[in-house]
Design a protein that fits this description.
Blueprint lengths: L2 H6 L7 H10 L4 E2 H11 L8 H14 L2 E7 L5 E7 L1 H25 L1 H7 L1
Antiparallel strand pairs: 1-3, 2-3
Amino acid sequence: MSTREQRERVELLQGTLDLLILRTLLRGPVHGHAIAKAIEFNSDEVLQVEQGSLYPALHRLIKRGWISVEEGTSENNRRAKFYRLTPKGRRQLALETSKWDKLVGAIGRILRPAESESES
């Protein structure tokens, strides 16, 4: 990673990766590498998910019952673990999305108070 890429890299807030994983799995079961690539692609390359962060997050989500895992074969014919959103995970995704929306709104009001006041 170049120095420029390191400066422009965005660090995720704690818990945000869990939310992004849950949202990614809403589309259907997928293996870990594909989850990381989907987050990277859908964020226009702003968010990079390292394996050292991804797999502990996946294990945490399994432990909470929000996702399940099963063995399968990837598109390049290799054994892989496929992660799937559970019904409990769908409910949690809705809850976490609502919390995220509130957080973003609150931070926006602090960072841009004039815009918030003019909208009132």
